[in-house]
Amino acid sequence: MSSAESLTKVELPSDQNAGGRTLGHEELALVQDALESGTLTSTKGQFVKRLESEFAMRHGAQHCYASSSGSAALHVAFAAVDPEPGDEIITTPITDMGGLTPILFQGAIPVFADVDYRTCNVTADTIEARLSERTKAIVVTHLFGNPCDMGPIMELARSRSLPVIEDCAQAFEATYGDQRVGTLGDIGCFSLQQGKHITTGEGGLTITSDDEFARRIFLFVNKAWGYGDPKPDHYFLALNYRMNELTGAVAAAQLGKLDQSVAARIEMADLLTSKISDIDGVETPHINPHATHTYWKYCLTIDPTVIEGGAVGLAGKLKELGVFSAPRYIQKPAFECQVFAEQRTFGNSRFPFTEARPEAVNYDRSLFPGAYEGLERILVLPWNERYTAEHVTFIANAIRSCCHS
After folding, report:
1. Is 196 a catalytic residue?
2. Which candidate, 127, 82, 126, 69, places its Cα nearest to that of 108?
3. Is 50 exceeded by the pLDDT of residue 2?
4. What distance in Å separates the CA atoms of residue 385 and residue 274, rounded to the nearest whole number?
5. Could you tell me which of 3, 46, 375, 383 has the fewest CB atoms within 10 Å of its CB?
6. Where are the domains of the chain?
7. Contacts of 342 (CB under 8 A, 6+ apart)
8. Model confidence at 96: pLDDT above 50
9. Cross-strand bridge partners of residue 291
10. Residue 215 scores a pLDDT above 50
11. Chain-centre distance for alpha carbon 270
12. Residue of 136, 196, 275, 297 marked active site
């Protein structure tokens, strides 16, 4: 009998249902309060305002605005920097499309920087290589909960007077130096989607300490209507991205559990690292010494010259043992998706690509060696705060047996 066959399978909790989530009586109590109040709009209610206040205070930010999704949280950030048509926003090719299409909706051009293959995060060097006179802002995505190397990035951004938007959708409570992510740049964006560190199914939060950005964020969430102004009007083109009170109630309860959830994720991730760090061909997460990783997912880097079949082969073997994983994370860099490759936007107009410099939409493979190598080697393990030492030991033994089989 092989070592793989001798493994006793353990069912792993999933963040797609109650097994891997912390939803409970605290959320039910606040939702009941919201329902009994009869006020479900955040313009009149208390729960979204409470959430915004507590989240801002937690981060030492002057302002926080809730919205309907993580994509909306990013969209309001892009609206805050107010790009002109054809302006460029530096970002990553390894991210959710919700972090990219809002740039197009604002008439700007996503310009993709390469990544460090070990982390799949952008770096100061890869960002600098893509800057131009039309660069309006820089987006850094702290992928999987692992912070980008923000020191050099912020030094570069400040030298060019460029605002930095932090996509923290996967990185609640992650730190760089003595600061939480979301506070190192000018605007921080967070997601409350089903699988995030805290969840409301869908929802977003955007923080900033810049009063001018805050004003535009507030307005953009509210159709640019100047609530509270002496003579309010719809000042510019904007959407309704408001969070409702039921979502705000769930989020407020979830926020009270965030510290415990993050601590549990880190503790179990550290345990897994200790159990598999000696396996040849398997590299555990590469973490900057100045940073704290908070593990939205746990990612391995697989050497295909050592592990037969590379990340895809290992994923197949693990699946047979009941450990599901995602080789590549995304199947291709974002710029290979039709919206970019075929410039499918507004009707047949191709706008805003019609305003782009040729260099800004050059997606030649040679420009992105880190992205292609990273996607080729990465194996993403699901993770949540309900994992125990038993679950981690099972995963570790499964990885070891598959690598040695």
Report:
1. yes
2. 82
3. no
4. 18
5. 3
6. 25-257
7. none
8. yes
9. 176
10. yes
11. 21
12. 196
